[in-house]
């Protein structure tokens, strides 16, 4: 059962999400928060698998709530998905840097929302390749920041895997591209995350672009 925390200051939106999610046999909404401070407190109380967090909320915004959840070792199993009103806005990259595992547009199709929750619960990055390219092109290129850890700590194989993750490939797709087993691909991804201090695949995506390992329009490695 996937346990979900909803955090949005609009009760009507929370009610809509709750109705949709609760209708699924494998998803349970365990708590609702009306602001970021409540979201952090309820995350600690209920330890959900996924936290759907709105960017703009009173008391504490979604980005700061995400940062606090990501920084708390007790909440290491909580995957934060940011809810936005638009497909791409100025908050998305900040949210990913703060530790969000991806983002969803509030008016997304119900089936896509449900799939997104399941993807996030698995720990996969909730970012399509097309959205990733737009994100990096419009924000990383405009305000680059130095990569905090040198890529020299990665093996050549790990660098190749990180580049493919940044292109939006799944473990199975990485395995096919590199002609290795999915298990080996997953191991390479996990080791790269550990070495770079990345919380999840979404942060690997941001770090890969910010480091210059891949570029918005560059070819597959």
Automatic annotation (TrEMBL):
Domain Response regulatory: 3-121
Pfam families assigned to the protein according to its UniProt record, in alphabetical order: GerE, Response_reg
GO biological process terms held by the UniProt record: phosphorelay signal transduction system; regulation of DNA-templated transcription
Keywords: DNA-binding, Phosphoprotein, Transcription, Transcription regulation
Modified residues (4-aspartylphosphate): 54
PROSITE patterns: HTH_LUXR_2 (PS50043), RESPONSE_REGULATORY (PS50110)
Transcription among keywords: yes
GO MF terms, alphabetically ordered: DNA binding
HTH luxR-type domain sequence ranges: 147-212
UniProt superkingdom: Bacteria
Keyword Transmembrane (UniProt): no
Entry protein name: DNA-binding response regulator
Provenance organism: Nonomuraea cavernae
């Amino acid at each position: 059962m996937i346990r979900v925390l909803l955090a949005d200051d609009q009760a009507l939106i929370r009610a809509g999400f709750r109705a949709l999610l609760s209708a699924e046999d494998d998803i349970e909404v365990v708590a609702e928060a009306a602001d970021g401070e409540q979201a952090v407190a309820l995350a600690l109380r209920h330890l959900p698998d996924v936290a759907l967090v709105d960017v703009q909320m009173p008391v504490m915004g979604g980005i700061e709530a995400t940062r606090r959840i990501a920084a708390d070792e007790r909440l290491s199993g909580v995957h934060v998905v940011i809810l936005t009103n638009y497909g791409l806005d100025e908050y998305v990259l900040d949210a990913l840097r703060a530790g969000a595992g991806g983002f969803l547009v509030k008016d997304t199709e119900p089936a896509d929302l449900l799939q997104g929750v399941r993807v996030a619960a698995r720990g996969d990055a909730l970012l399509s390749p097309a959205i990733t390219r737009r994100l990096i092109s419009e924000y990383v290129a405009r305000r680059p920041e130095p990569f905090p850890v040198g890529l020299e700590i990665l093996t050549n194989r790990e660098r190749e895997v990180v580049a493919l993750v940044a292109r939006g490939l799944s473990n199975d797709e990485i395995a096919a591209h590199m002609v290795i087993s999915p298990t080996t691909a997953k191991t390479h991804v996990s080791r790269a995350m550990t070495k770079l201090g990345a919380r999840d695949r979404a942060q690997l995506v941001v770090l890969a672009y910010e480091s210059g390992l891949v570029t918005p329009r560059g070819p597959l490695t």
